[in-house]
Amino acid sequence: MEKFFLEKDNAALLIIDIQEKLADVMKVKEPVIKNSLHLVELAKLINIPVIVTEQYPKGLGHTVEEIRNALLLYQPIEKMTFSCCEENNFLQTVRGTQKKQFILVGMETHVCVLQTCLGLLRDGYAVHVVKDAVCSRTKENWKTGIAFMREAGAVITSAEIVLFQLLKIAGTTEFKTMVKRIK
After folding, report:
1. What 3-state DSSP class applies to 52?
2. Would you kindly state where each structural domain of the chain is located, as residue ranges?
């Protein structure tokens, strides 16, 4: 049961390849970006580290402007491998957070998100994949990627579930700020 409980002191947000040219070919990019932005804002409010990756930015562009502008610090880890875990700079950054739970959002569900999820699980991390903040070019690939990650041991969740799990209590300034955002 332990893997199902998110704790703000033990969690980090991982934004995988939500890049300009990749986003342009996604049918459901708007909700993915919107939900990712909710999680970025929560991360800022409760001091959760945010790691951003970019797959071959020369070809796919940089992280979409909305997310770039929302980040406190925009220092993407560039990669050529589909799995972020195959990139040394990524692994150093992950270890440097000293977190054991990773909240995944990004593109594409069945490629980079899936392979990164598997790598993190293999390395002993708890992984929460935000179902409404990941996408693929086709719904079938998205569904297959989600099912694959669930079968591998990831927790499949939603942006609002993550928000309320990390906030834990109503009435706080952080709670009031996030409720205004999602309404």
Report:
1. strand
2. 2-182
| DSSP-derived 3-state class of residue 66 | helix
Cis peptide bond N-terminal to 108, omega within 30: yes
Residues 2-182, CATH architecture: 3-Layer(aba) Sandwich (3.40)
pLDDT at 183: 85
Q: How far is CA 146 from CA 11, 63, 91, 100, 180, in A?
A: 21, 23, 23, 21, 29
Divide the 183 residues of the chain into consecutive groups of 10 and give the mean pLDDT of each group: 95 98 96 98 96 96 97 95 95 96 98 98 98 98 98 98 95 90 87
For tokens 């491998």, the residue is 81
Token readout for 177 is 């700020």
Catalytically active residues, by annotation: 17, 79, 112
The pLDDT of residue 15 is: 98
